[in-house]
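The freezer alarm interrupted the setup, so I double-checked each line after restarting. Inputs confirmed:
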Amino acid sequence: MPQTSMEIEKATIILKLLGDKTRLTMMKLIDDEACCVCELVEIFQTSQPSISQHLRKLKDLGLVKEDRRGQWIFYSVDKCNKYYPFIKPILDQIPSQEYKLKELEEKGTRISCC
Amino acid sequence: MPQTSMEIEKATIILKLLGDKTRLTMMKLIDDEACCVCELVEIFQTSQPSISQHLRKLKDLGLVKEDRRGQWIFYSVDKCNKYYPFIKPILDQIPSQEYKLKELEEKGTRISCC
DNA sequence: TGTTTATATAAGTATATAGTTATATACTTA
DNA sequence: TAAGTATATAACTATATACTTATATAAACA
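Predicted 3D structure, all chains:
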């Protein structure tokens, strides 16, 4: 029996969003810790608009929330969102991506930006 | 901490596969009960090649198994597959699709075919 | 063995999606 | 207030994907 039964249409949309390597990795990363856009740009070695567009899609569904701190906007998984119980077991089963943040710290890029 | 840590690449591929309404519904359906291709064609009101192609993708990853019974091939979720623990919590959270099989039975299409 | 039924595959098409470049917006600070 | 930095959006392009039609394969049965 379902723990939290949810519409199959919504489940499909969410799984499709998570079925992209950049977004899935990003969600795992910001499930632990808020990151700003420029950090994500550096981590994923892609363009800033590309990252913004991924975040936009996640935000449109309410999966992530933003938190402006000065000129930076920090994104993190919205654990209060009603779909969080659905995605949590998925995120829990994929390996931690914290090492990506560690790499930034070692390069000094993390501090310089945020 | 991850229960069953799995490669993020594999997780992405699986989630992308599940991020399609037909495939997700199908997986939920055949998680409970094996169905033959012609039943799935009728349930999803689409062409037979379309269903076969969806099943092919699921089978390529080992998510489903086939079982020939005479002229029919029955498909069901392969619960022994190493990725099953990953998809199980997802399937558990979406509503049962058994009513679709009930509809077939009421129409008499289920018996006539299989 | 030939015909029918069930399923798979190939090839083509239309649409969806991710990424790019260019530009706009918003905040910060000199 | 002007310049610089961070992020968002728009428009475009290239690729991926789902579906269609046509055809192949495989089993059943007359």
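Quick read of the result. Helices of chain A lie at 8-18, 21-32, 37-44, 48-60, 84-93, 98-107, 109-113.
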